[in-house]
Amino acid sequence: MRPLTLTVEGLRSFRASETIDFTGRDYLAIIGDTGAGKSSLLEAMGWALYGNTSWSGQPNQELMHDTSTATRVVLTFSVRGQTWRATRTLRRRDDRTVGAAQAELVRLEEKGDGALKEVDGVDKVRAVNDRVQELIGLNYEAFKRTVVLPQGQFAQLLVADDPRVRASILEQVWGVEGLADIKAAADETLRDIVPTASRVEQALADAPQDPAAHLTALREDVERLTSVAGSAASTTARAKDAVAAVEEASAKNTAAENARRLLLVDNSLATSANGLSAVAKELAEAEAAQATVTASAREELAAVPADDDGMSVAEVTTAQGVLARLPRLAADVDEAGSALVEARAEIDRLGNEAADADERVAAAKEQQEQHEAGRAALTTAVEEAQASVHAAEQRLGAWRSALAEQESAEASAARLQDGLAGLRSAVDAADAAAKAAHEEATRAQSAKESADREHAAIAAAAGLSVGDDCTVCHRPLPDGWSAPGDSAHDAIAAAARKAVSAEREADAALTKATATLESGEAQLESATKAVEQRTAAVGTAESALVAVLGPVDVTRSDEELLTGLREKAEVARAALTSHDAAGRELAEATQAARTAATIATANNQAAVAAEARAAAALTRARKECEEAVGLIPPALEILVQHGSPGATTQMAGLDEAAAQLTERESVLAERSAARLRLQAKLAELEKERTALDQRRCRELTEPLEGLVRKLDGERQQLERLQASLGVDGVEVPSLVGVTADSAPAVVAAFHSGTARLAEVAVTRLNESTEALIVARAVLDEVGQAIGTSGDVELVAELERRQKDAEVKAGIAQHEAEAFEARVEPIRQLREASAGLEEQRLVLEDLSAALNPGAFPKWLTMRRSHDLLLHASVLLEEMTAGRYSFAEVVSPDDPWKVIDNDSGLPRSPASLSGGETFVASLSLALGMVEMMARSGGHLESLWLDEGFGALDRGNLDSAVEALSQVAARGRMVAVISHVRAVAEQVNHVLAVTHGSRGSQARWLAPNERAALAEMDATGEPGAMAAVAGLLD
């Protein structure tokens, strides 16, 4: 990955939009003061590509400037010969929180005019992240350890990473992860091949080894089966012809037999026809005699008189029933009238009792109300007495509480007064200790400053000898000069730090003691005010208590002080209780009177209801009596009279009516007897007529219909026989209107036609005998040949055998044609099967070779070994042979550095800051070289900080090593506040921070020279001057 342009806006200190063009620059430096925003440029590139930063796990919240409403980063970069543009943006919401990031990644191509056009891309955060990792070949953790090395993480790969994490990152760098992809692809292809090969084997399972020979055999089967089918068809045709001849002879024989059978039938039908004629004559005579007797009986029945000359039988019966009921109905009326008189007397008696009860209730209620009116004064007296007791109890309790609070406040104030003396002593002691600690810290700091100057001289003289330029005055060192020896700088510095710490502790102790004293004094003041407030509260509570109890004797108990008020309250309650008891007795008497009145009223209402029921009963009894009289015919002249309730009902004319009813009943009975006798006789005559009808149906009608049906059947048989024989001139008589008298003549006509057809049938049967013998011989021959008897079964078997032969021939033909079409595919399948088997073996070997822990692990170990060898050479060059890297045997072994002076390995964590930087830089440059040797795509290297820890010699070596990498066409960028780096780098990007935020600009050669001169002379404000140039 090689950056081409970078645009940032609203990102941390870069408030305004800044675009930086890296095109054509291989070796560059980004310089600026601490906090100017140099590292933000590296973080911007990492965020544009991966959506992540090295600060924390919440890059969206950290990236946006506090005053910005949006953040935008656009990185254009090249990778593997393609140009891509990654864009990420953030928006601040109305509630000042930062929303989710938006991302886009597009590929760019040059148009004819040199401009770039978008070709394709993705626009979702996850999709962009995945595509970037696919393009660069590294995840974010590997990217910030190998390509962009952020501030504070430059030595992460060397010092801090767990060996397993380091191995995972190196696998990405070396492309070993691609081997896992190759293994996965091989396994996936193998999984696809296995079922395909299985399907090919299944397709070849029924294929013959020699398809051509198999096809020839199939064609021979076709010829043989076709010949068999032809022979079967010929035999079937001969058998069918013979069966037809036999069936024709059989039909002629059947015709002759049918003719003979019909002649016999005609004889039987002639006998039946003659018998039906005799039966018809006998039935006619019997029916005429029965009709004469029936007419005579009907004339006699019509002579009986009708019953419409007076009361009918129903009216007589009803009137007799009513006459029998009238005495009882009159008694019911009299009884209901007596009950009504009694009910009205009971109403009068109970009404008087209810009135008396109501008067007693009114008197009791008036007495109760008068008693209740006196309760209000007693209740008020009780409430006033109880209120006085309650008020006295409350005020007495308040007075006691006020006294207790007064005593507590006085005791608390006394305790605080006693503790102030100790607090003042503690403040004096802490003040003296703070002054002593300050004097000791001042002395120790002076000693440290003197030791610092001596230590700086020792460091500046390190490695110098007589004649070298002094690092301070830049003049040659004189003869006899020797480097000053080391001093106890570290011990003096530690003592100074300890003295300063003690001074801070003493100051803190004095501050704490002073605060404690001030707090105690404030508490005492508050306690004194509380005593005054409690004393005033005691006076107020005592005044309120005196207003209720009078003068108070403090020596008496609460019970003694409240006794008088409580006795008055008890007297008032006793008077109220006695009054309530008397009230309850009056209430009970009133309730008893109400109950008696309720019972009397209920009894009166019951009597009224009984009187209504008695009146209704009297009305119903009179109505029933009147309705009964209304059912008696008016001719009987019955009279019924009702008096007032309780009087006897009067009735007249009952005996005369009973005599008239008896006489009319006798006349009606005689007429009914005559009618019943004659009707019975007519019923018997009707039965006789029905029996004659049934006999006619049974002995004449049904037999005649049967004869006609038989003649109709014979007619149809004669017509069929005539049609089968082909004879003309035989007339068949009509059967329409055949009677018992005409039946014998019709039967004789049928017999004549049947005789003529029988003669023709017998003649033709004799003529077909010879053809029948020949056909039977053919059928017997074929039947014996196939083992089947019966003409129908024989023909069916021959047809089945013919069809089987034809089907087999057709199947053979189809199989031959189908197999002919399969010959070439079978050959191709055998070739494909062999190829799939060969491919399966190769893929299984490849998958086994790429299993985790085998070849990939060996390759990672091998590449790591080569990396450490090359990095060792660089490390020795940059440390003048002092350090190199130790070899590793296993990927799980920690990386170590060899101290060549002692020959012993050291942990990278034990190196100084400058040594760690040089070792990490050697690894980074070695990784660039290893990627170049293996055709990798590590096209740029970005280093953030670390140069400040190097002395001039190591700095020059590091810058020279980086320039050699840049000279081979790779981009190298160093980020540092050490402006000496800019002296040896052609392209310098200066980053400054001002009132408008951070700005970045490439320095011109004269600006670089001015910056280097100011840095060399130690002139302060060098970067401020650069900022002025930018402005």
TrEMBL record:
Quaternary structure and interacting proteins, as annotated: Heterodimer of SbcC and SbcD.
Keywords: Coiled coil, Exonuclease, Hydrolase, Nuclease
InterPro entries found in the cross-reference section: P-loop_NTPase, Rad50/SbcC_AAA
Domain of life of the native organism: Bacteria
Protein name as catalogued: Nuclease SbcCD subunit C
MF GO annotations: ATP hydrolysis activity; exonuclease activity
Listed GO biological process terms: double-strand break repair
Entry's family note: Belongs to the SMC family. SbcC subfamily.
PANTHER family in UniProt: ABC TRANSPORTER ABCH.3
Residue ranges constituting the Rad50/SbcC-type AAA domain according to the UniProt record: 6-192
Ranges where the record places region Disordered: 434-454
SUPFAM superfamilies for this protein: P-loop containing nucleoside triphosphate hydrolases (SSF52540)
Alphabetical list of Pfam families matching this protein: AAA_23, SbcC_Walker_B
Coiled-coil zones: 333-395, 492-530, 668-724, 795-846
UniProt keyword annotation of Nucleotide-binding present: no
